[in-house]
């Protein structure tokens, strides 16, 4: 059998499987969204996304979507620290653009947030950090080389190691660590793999994170 015929047979086989799955899904009885009680664990972005899709896509009544959380004394969704910068993820923006404003039905929650930031916080002028400028050139160079080597390493090599297991005080006393750790709420005992992922994803945009 030629390669072309073999490819056509495989393609036809996969196409038949997809058609059978589609027929099976159409035959399955659909739930009545009015009878659905959805329970979400954790008041975070994942639960917010699930709730938005349940209400907008699945047409589940909002009062039948329940979010369970152990945090007391606050309402709304908690943007948990330690993994993501505050409202800088595109997926978070997309979700908040779908959520209607509590004060203006013609606006989204995201528009309210941006308006609040515009009037209450100067752009790119965070005053929450104290940065030392007296570090020696040798120490700065060592911290940079350690970071470059760390970024180029394979994440699998870190295993269960913590950030503090792979870096010395040269990094932790640097102005870079002050900015990075306060932006992402990182500590020395956090996962080295988490630190690696954040560096790979956000390092090119670090100059835009100083207003967090």
Automatic annotation (TrEMBL):
Gene3D superfamilies: FAD/NAD(P)-binding domain (3.50.50.60). GO terms for biological process: fatty acid metabolic process. InterPro entries: FAD/NAD-bd_sf (IPR036188), Oleate_hydratase (IPR010354). One of its GO terms (molecular function) is FAD binding. It comes from the Eukaryota. This is Uncharacterized protein. It comes from Penicillium argentinense.
């Amino acid at each position: 059998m030629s390669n072309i015929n073999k490819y056509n047979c495989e393609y036809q086989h996969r196409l038949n499987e997809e058609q059978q799955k589609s027929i099976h899904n159409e035959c399955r009885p659909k739930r009545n969204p009015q009878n659905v009680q959805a329970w979400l664990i954790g008041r975070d972005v994942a639960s917010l996304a699930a709730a938005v899709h349940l209400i907008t896509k699945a047409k589940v009544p909002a009062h039948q979507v329940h979010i369970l959380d152990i945090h007391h004394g606050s309402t709304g969704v908690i943007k948990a620290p330690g993994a993501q910068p505050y409202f800088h993820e595109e997926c978070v923006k997309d979700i908040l653009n779908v959520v209607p404003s509590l004060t203006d039905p013609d606006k989204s929650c995201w528009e309210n947030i941006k308006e609040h930031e515009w009037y209450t916080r100067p752009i790119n002028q965070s005053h929450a950090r104290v940065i030392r400028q007296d570090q020696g050139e040798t120490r700065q160079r060592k911290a940079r080389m350690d970071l470059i080597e760390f970024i180029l390493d394979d994440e699998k090599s870190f295993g269960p190691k913590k950030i503090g297991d792979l870096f010395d005080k040269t990094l932790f006393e640097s102005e870079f660590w002050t900015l990075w750790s306060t932006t992402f709420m990182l500590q020395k005992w956090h996962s080295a793999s988490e630190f690696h992922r954040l560096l790979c994803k956000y390092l090119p945009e670090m100059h835009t994170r100083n207003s967090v």
